[in-house]
Amino acid sequence: MQCPRYLCFTDSVDDIKLQTLKSKGLFNLITRKHTECIELDFRYQGDLGKSGIWSIIENGEVLKVEDDFSSLSSTEILLNTNDLIKGERYWECHNYLEELWKRYSGHKKVVVHDLIGIIVSQIKVQMDQWEVGKRVYERSYKDLRVHTVPALFQQLPSEFGYPLKISFDFISSTLED
Fold this sequence. Notes:
The chain is 48% helix and 13% strand. By secondary structure, the protein is α+β, with helices and mostly antiparallel strands. Helix 3 (90-103) runs antiparallel to helix 4 (106-126). The mean pLDDT is 85.
């Protein structure tokens, strides 16, 4: 059985705290920097309480991550995606969009693939890979110009930047079940 996955949103974390977390059994750690916080993405089997992670990270929020979205409708996925984008939670947004991508074929699949690229560009920035993020954004932006409804393309900035604040509301009718 695979250990559960968690996200922790905290104001700051230093290398010493990260090493201590790893010594407490935290593994597969990925750090992503948001505008106003740091996101720690990890797997952990153990006590999250005072003797576990919270003994090291004094402030923050820890969420258990659900990885199975198969029971959600496309509409529910798009609504969740919108909320995640607002909070710069691009990795989770990517996971939701990947579920849609698996469901679709043809034009819908291509559009969702292009949207995933836009979201991935933001994840790359959060991981301090600006140049990679810029290349991914520019490629996906160009592809969306060809493949998508004008309303989506018009929302996207022509210049790459972070954070990206867009809404998928306008394409819900195109991508819904």
